[in-house]
Recover the amino acids of this structure.
């Protein structure tokens, strides 16, 4: 059973004069549980597709919002993170505003999938040396991933 929660933080830019929209889409082969948010005024949606899909939308103007969830039994986690960085109202998709772990390295592609290291049976935890790949196809029933690297290689370890 997964014990460490995954944290996804949406952070506003300094001096933003209006709210900027974001859309966070997560899919897993496990189930999303214990979903919460650091801002009590933000609605936290329930997962869909039998607990395997979680889509969070919102707007941010100041500070940051931290979302947390657990995915017990998961071997993979798909992430498609979009954010209006320039304030034009359009959601942008870029690896440049996605930072992994405390080392704040960027994933090589977006959307991306993180997965268990080769030879490990699980559960998928944020502190492990997870693999990072491109989703060839990722749905509630099909998980085809081209693995590209792992987080320690990105961190230079």
């Amino acid at each position: 059973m997964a014990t460490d929660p995954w944290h996804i933080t949406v952070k506003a830019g300094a001096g933003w004069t209006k709210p900027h929209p974001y859309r966070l889409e997560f899919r897993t082969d496990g189930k999303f549980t214990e979903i919460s948010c650091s801002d009590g005024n933000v609605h936290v949606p329930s997962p869909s597709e039998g607990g395997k899909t979680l889509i969070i939308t919102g707007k941010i103007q100041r500070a940051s919002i931290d979302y947390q969830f657990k995915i017990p039994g998961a071997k993979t986690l798909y992430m498609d993170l979009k954010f209006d960085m320039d304030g034009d109202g359009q959601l942008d998709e870029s690896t440049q505003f996605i930072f992994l772990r405390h080392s704040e390295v960027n994933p090589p592609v977006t959307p991306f999938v993180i997965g268990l290291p080769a030879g490990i049976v699980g559960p998928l935890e944020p502190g492990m040396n997870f693999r990072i790949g491109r989703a060839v196809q990722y749905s509630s029933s099909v998980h085809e991933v081209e693995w590209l690297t792992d987080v320690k290689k990105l961190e230079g370890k």
About this structure: The beta strands are 6-11, 20-28, 33-37, 53-60, 64-70, 76-83, 112-115, 131-138, 143-150. Residues 6-154 form one domain. The longest strand covers residues 20-28.
